[in-house]
Automatic annotation (TrEMBL):
Residues 3-328 form the D-isomer specific 2-hydroxyacid dehydrogenase catalytic domain. InterPro entries: D-isomer_2_OHA_DH_cat_dom (IPR006139), D-isomer_DH_CS (IPR029753), D-isomer_DH_CS1 (IPR029752), D-isomer_DH_NAD-bd (IPR006140), D-LDH-like (IPR058205), NAD(P)-bd_dom_sf (IPR036291). PROSITE patterns: D_2_HYDROXYACID_DH_1, D_2_HYDROXYACID_DH_2, D_2_HYDROXYACID_DH_3. Residues 110-297 form the D-isomer specific 2-hydroxyacid dehydrogenase NAD-binding domain. This is 2-hydroxyacid dehydrogenase. It comes from the Bacteria. Belongs to the D-isomer specific 2-hydroxyacid dehydrogenase family. The lineage of its organism: Bacteria, Pseudomonadati, Bacteroidota, Flavobacteriia, Flavobacteriales. PANTHER family: 2-HYDROXYACID DEHYDROGENASE HOMOLOG 1-RELATED. Gene3D superfamilies: NAD(P)-binding Rossmann-like Domain. GO terms for molecular function: NAD binding; oxidoreductase activity, acting on the CH-OH group of donors, NAD or NADP as acceptor.
Amino acid sequence: MKIAVFSTKPYDQEYFERYNEKSNFAFTYFETPLNHHTANLTSGYQAVCIFVNDKVDSNAIRILFKNGVRLIALRCAGYNNVDMEAAKEYGIKVVRVPAYSPEAVAEHAIALILTLNRKTHKAYNRIRESNFSLNKLIGFNLHGKTVGVIGTGKIGTAFCKISRGFGCKIIAFDKYESDEVINLGGEYKSLVDVFKESDIISLHCPLNPETKHMINEQSLSMMKNGIMIINTSRGALIDTADIIKGLANKKIGYLGIDVYEQEENLFFKDLSESIIEDDMILRLISFPNVLITSHQAYFTKEAMEEITHTTLENIRDFEKGEILKNEIA
Ligand code: NAI
């Protein structure tokens, strides 16, 4: 079976080739993302394998179908970048990796919190220049702080467990309450109460029309002054222009983001010799209390293994005509 892999980085290829022996799929690795401009590359392939910043809209799906593609295998969990209605209309199956390592993402969210709070990134740079001063490195205890968790699925629950270990009080909002979170001592509240009562808010819900720009001028106005906001979920959960205003007027004390609404033009690329044309990311970088990582929360050895195994299995199931257990219906 011929599979076109888009947005490939050296590490994707390394992991796929390491575990492909059993299946012997014919992978072609494209560095370019899949979108309606590049969809023509899929002629002669039965499947495409894509990641978070490939854009599979209805135009791309029409071209994929014409070229003979019948399977879209996402090597990630979120699928907001695929037009599911169009995929259904053309009878193209869409599979994903529903959970590769919730702990990897939850631990990264905690890393953002600890770095922002205890300023270890600044201390590291200071000490390299023999500056042993503590001025302006003061942090706060996590113990006893109220952490608001929005979305208590697999990652949100893993995040709650770690936060409990720090002695934080957990309040949460989700459309469905999780017994596991309640057993951890977490308390479900309305979204408004989570906004109002939290010292730290961590976003772990998917991006959909309901959650898009949930962090905006209005929700920020309800929050405590100096709030810490962490987003390892999807960039568009945050209205970037509003959050810049919130940082400028000091409503937001700390912002840690692993995702960014306009990330597709920036993240996963070495742009160190380029002129960055995105003024919003430049403004965000300019704040001393903002920490940005480029969608690396998932990026652990354990998660890469799981992504590779599940993706190969998803494609094998499709090839054999078996039930697709990870199909997005
Ligand atoms: P999940 O499906 O296990 O949990 C999502 C939770 O969000 C569910 O409990 C669901 O009920 C809840 N939810 C849905 N709509 C909501 C709303 N309007 N308000 C509040 N909660 C709502 O998903 P999982 O595995 O925990 O992943 C969460 C998100 O993390 C994914 O959607 C993806 O966008 C992101 N992610 C980011 C990664 C990274 O590397 N930065 C890696 C993997 C996932």
